Structure formats: structure tokens, C-alpha cells
Amino acid sequence: MSENAANNNNIFMEKNQICKEAIVSELQKKKVHLFYCLECEELARNIAAESDHITLQSINWRSFADGFPNLFINNAHQIRGQHVAFLASFSSPAVIFEQISVIYLLPRLFVASFTLVLPFFPTGSFERMEEEGDVATAFTMARIVSNIPISRGGPTSVVIYDIHALQERFYFADQVLPLFETGIPLLTKRLQQIPETEKVIVAFPDDGAWKRFHKLLDQYPTVVCTKVREGDKRIVRLKEGNPTGCHVVIVDDLVQSGGTLIECQKVLAAHGAAKVSAYVTHGVFPNSSWERFTHKNNGVEEAFAYFWITDSCPQTVKSIGNKAPFEVLSLAGSIADALQI
């Protein structure tokens, strides 16, 4: 056999081995039956579209005359011995009880394994434990989740994205296996599409955001802001870094009213930032507070060039639509991958 023929044969064998490994890997993926709450239907469909191994299942979400849930899990017999997941949204106390009722039942239907996907863990985002008598509702919610029954395959896996306070990850008991994921890879992928002529740097609105995310964004120069107290007011100041002439992207885990982001934008612009954008994993925006960020005046340069959020808060995504400067970076692919762990 000639040398060229031998090389071609080796290349063929290597490609053939790669193909075999890819087929084996695909065959080894588990098939997951995904249930979801009503709020998360669009996200659930996007997750299923990411993988042929994910099948959507349905629940009849009904109520009795007194308002209490009247629920029915369809195909309960067919999911025996199968891997099952539930996509939840605890957007308000009013919807938590009905979802917890379903979450507690699914593992008891003789399923092979059970995974709870709760993209946004809502409690604790406002809590400050400063004096005796303050109630830690984040701890209460973690205890509720920690008591999900064990399935035939063992403890429940709980998938959560960018939990607000780092200590909250230790609130969960040993009966569940929390998997803490992040939406930052979606941001870094989007930033790669920004023209190279725009020097992108990352800004953190406070030390808490820096602690959470700086290691995930260490390929970018950083600016750190801080909040200082002046009388009865807390004012944003530039702590370190130089935003002059740069496209500055403020990064945080969530936004509520947006006041801190707006003050941070003003400080960065005052220090010479060419553009300011923002990214948060969880666009909570109570009372439609997102409206203060929209580009209302055609042709007029607005404070934020882009405002990226994920679809962890479905009601916000539905309200915002495609209104500039908002862009939604979907967690669907990341969740589909997490369901294979």
C-alpha cells in the first residue's frame, strides 16, 4: 500500500471512529418527559425543539369553584420507568401551591428519575437579614423544594440559574441535588457578535455582582461600581476601572425596578463610556418597570444600546415582546443540556 493510500485509510478510520462515537453518544442520551406549568409553555416548546430526546407532556390545570387547584397529570401510567422533568415558574405566591402539588406527585409515579427545572429562584432577592424577627423566605422555599419525594432513581435534581445570593445555595438539604447553572455563556456568545471596533468591557454594579460573575467574564476588562451612602440616599459611584471610549456592558443576576442600573449607566456615561448596555439573567420587572428602559423616541439615542435578558421570567418576556433595546437570550439549549446530566 502506498504512503498516500495508507494516510487516506488512516483518515477514513479516524472519521469512522468519530462517527461511531457520536452515534453511541446519541444513543446513550436519556429520553426525558418534560411537564411544564402554563407560564412556561413557550420555553418548554423551545427546550423540546433543542433535542429529539425530550418529549412534552401535559397537565390539566383546573380549579374548583372555591379557587383551589383541580389538577390532573395526563399519561401518568406511560411515564412509569421513564426520566421525568418539570419546568416551573414561581412567579408569584398564587401559582406556587398548585405547582408544588404536581412536583411532589411526579416522583411518586414510579419514574426512573425526576428533575425540577426552576430557572428563577425568586425568594431572597429583596431579603436583608439585619435584625431578630426578619423572616428568611428563601430558606423556607429551599426547605419546601428539599422535601420533594425521592424517585426510584434517587434524589431529585434541581436546576436553578444564577441564584441571587450565593449563600442561598447552602439552604438546600441533602434530599435533593441542586445544580446551579448560569446564563453568562449566552451573553458571551452574543458579545462575540458585537463589532470589534467597539471595545467591549464589563461593568459590575456592585461587589456582589463582581463576586458572582467576574471569573466567568475574565476575558473582558472590567469596571466595578459601588453604592455609597450620602445622608438618606445610596448613590452609585465608580470604584475601579476606566470606561472611557468603550462599549460597557453592565452585568447582574436580576433586575427589579432597574434603579441601580440606571444610576450605574449615568455614572459610566459621565466617565466617558461610548455606549452602555446591560445583561441580567432574570428580568423580573414588577409593575411593568421595564417600560422605563424602552426606546420611545425614534431617532433619539437612548441610554441603553442593548438590554439582554433570558426567558427565565416568562411573563416579562411576553410583555416585552421585541421592544428595543430588549433582546431575549433563550435558556432552552442550556436547559436541554442540563436534563442530560
TrEMBL record:
<keyword id="KW-0067">ATP-binding</keyword>
<dbReference type="GO" id="GO:0002189">
    <property type="term" value="C:ribose phosphate diphosphokinase complex"/>
</dbReference>
<dbReference type="GO" id="GO:0006015">
    <property type="term" value="P:5-phosphoribose 1-diphosphate biosynthetic process"/>
</dbReference>
<keyword id="KW-0808">Transferase</keyword>
<keyword id="KW-0460">Magnesium</keyword>
<keyword id="KW-0545">Nucleotide biosynthesis</keyword>
<dbReference type="GO" id="GO:0006164">
    <property type="term" value="P:purine nucleotide biosynthetic process"/>
</dbReference>
<keyword id="KW-0547">Nucleotide-binding</keyword>
<dbReference type="GO" id="GO:0005737">
    <property type="term" value="C:cytoplasm"/>
</dbReference>
<dbReference type="GO" id="GO:0004749">
    <property type="term" value="F:ribose phosphate diphosphokinase activity"/>
</dbReference>
<dbReference type="Pfam" id="PF00156">
    <property type="entry name" value="Pribosyltran"/>
</dbReference>
<protein>
    <recommendedName>
        <fullName>ribose-phosphate diphosphokinase</fullName>
        <ecNumber>2.7.6.1</ecNumber>
    </recommendedName>
</protein>
<feature type="domain" description="Ribose-phosphate pyrophosphokinase N-terminal">
    <location>
        <begin position="34"/>
        <end position="145"/>
    </location>
</feature>
<keyword id="KW-0479">Metal-binding</keyword>
<dbReference type="GO" id="GO:0000287">
    <property type="term" value="F:magnesium ion binding"/>
</dbReference>
<dbReference type="Pfam" id="PF13793">
    <property type="entry name" value="Pribosyltran_N"/>
</dbReference>
<comment type="similarity">
    <text>Belongs to the ribose-phosphate pyrophosphokinase family.</text>
</comment>
<dbReference type="GO" id="GO:0016301">
    <property type="term" value="F:kinase activity"/>
</dbReference>
<dbReference type="InterPro" id="IPR000836">
    <property type="entry name" value="PRTase_dom"/>
</dbReference>
<dbReference type="InterPro" id="IPR029057">
    <property type="entry name" value="PRTase-like"/>
</dbReference>
<keyword id="KW-0418">Kinase</keyword>
<dbReference type="InterPro" id="IPR005946">
    <property type="entry name" value="Rib-P_diPkinase"/>
</dbReference>
<feature type="domain" description="Phosphoribosyltransferase">
    <location>
        <begin position="234"/>
        <end position="285"/>
    </location>
</feature>
<dbReference type="GO" id="GO:0005524">
    <property type="term" value="F:ATP binding"/>
</dbReference>
<dbReference type="InterPro" id="IPR029099">
    <property type="entry name" value="Pribosyltran_N"/>
</dbReference>
